[in-house]
Write a sequence for this structure.
């Protein structure tokens, strides 16, 4: 905890002075207590064996004064505060393997629910964009602080899934481009297809730590211009961390029909590649084998991304505590004070 005006904490020295004054007053009161000629009346006023009660109201009052002394110094605590310009690009694999049911009700449905959880925990002012990808990436929702737009885009997510393979590297490059466009207020239009013709990593426009990518996939790269680590290098060059989630179990599979024949195709996730992407970009990797696990990962990231270390003033908390203590002291003093019969 820190204070905007730490010198004002010297006011706390009034507390021990008040205690000393109270004890001196108590000694003086006891010195003249025998001036009562009627000892029965004195005993009734003294309250029998409950003399300890009379110390509670003044103790509460002193605590209230202490809280007020701390409040005037304007205390602040270190915390995570929402960033006014932060942007998160959500990238979701919608390839055919996402229809596997090893994660209930399906991998894609679990991913959609996880995005909703992320939006629920994210700061309201956080700008969010959504990219879906299979054989090529597409912007499903433009970067916006209106999270309802992103939620609505989930209803049509994966309409063309099952075609074209998995282009992880191109999807990463698309997310980098969308994040950079958001920083310079040049957001790409919804539904625009992005193509990449060069695989060489180049120093790209920095984002000053304002953009993060949350990348979910369940399989290995099968198509695309850029390899996964080439896409990761683009993100690192732009200063964008990538948080990756490998969704699915090693025993995951899908069934495909080929004429009169049906074939079961194994679709295990590729955690090694996704972990390497996170490491390359200074992000973090999560392995999710259940819907609950992916939901938990997105909830955690929703509470973290879009925030930065800062200080929050908590003066109001000490003022509220002082008011509550003063009220308690007054009520107890009125209830326990001795009254002459």
């Amino acid at each position: 905890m820190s204070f905007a005006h730490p010198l004002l904490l010297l006011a706390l020295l009034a507390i021990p002075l008040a205690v000393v004054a109270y004890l001196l007053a108590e000694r003086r009161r006891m010195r003249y207590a025998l001036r009562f000629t009627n000892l029965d009346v004195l005993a009734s006023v003294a309250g029998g064996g409950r003399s300890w009660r009379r110390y509670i109201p003044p103790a509460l009052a002193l605590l209230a004064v202490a809280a007020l002394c701390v409040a005037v110094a304007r205390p602040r605590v270190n915390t995570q505060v929402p960033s006014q310009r932060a942007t998160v690009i959500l990238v979701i694999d919608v390839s055919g393997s996402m229809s596997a049911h090893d994660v209930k009700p399906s991998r894609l449905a679990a991913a959609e629910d996880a995005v909703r959880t992320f939006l629920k925990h994210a700061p309201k002012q956080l700008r969010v964009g959504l990219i879906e990808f299979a054989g090529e990436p597409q912007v499903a929702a433009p970067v916006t602080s209106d999270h309802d737009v992103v939620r609505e885009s989930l209803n049509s997510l994966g309409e063309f899934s099952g075609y074209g393979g998995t282009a992880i590297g191109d999807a990463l490059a698309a997310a980098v481009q969308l994040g950079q466009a958001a920083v310079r207020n040049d957001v790409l239009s919804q539904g625009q297809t992005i193509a990449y013709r060069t695989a060489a990593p180049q120093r790209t426009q920095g984002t000053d730590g304002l953009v993060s990518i949350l990348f979910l996939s369940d399989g290995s790269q099968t198509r695309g211009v850029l390899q996964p680590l080439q896409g990761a290098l683009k993100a690192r060059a732009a200063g964008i961390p990538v948080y990756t989630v490998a969704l699915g179990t090693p025993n995951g599979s899908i069934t495909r029909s080929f004429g009169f024949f049906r074939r079961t195709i194994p679709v295990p996730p590729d955690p090694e590649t996704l972990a390497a992407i996170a490491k390359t970009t200074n992000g973090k990797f999560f392995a999710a084998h259940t819907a609950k696990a992916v939901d938990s990962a997105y909830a955690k990231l929703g509470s973290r991304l879009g925030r930065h270390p800062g200080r929050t003033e908590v003066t109001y908390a000490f003022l509220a505590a002082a008011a509550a203590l003063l009220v308690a002291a007054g009520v107890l003093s009125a209830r326990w004070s001795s009254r002459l019969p």
User: Anything to note?
Assistant: The CA atoms of residues 41 and 341 lie 8 Å apart. The first helix runs from residue 14 to 31. The mean pLDDT is 82. The radius of gyration is 32 Å.
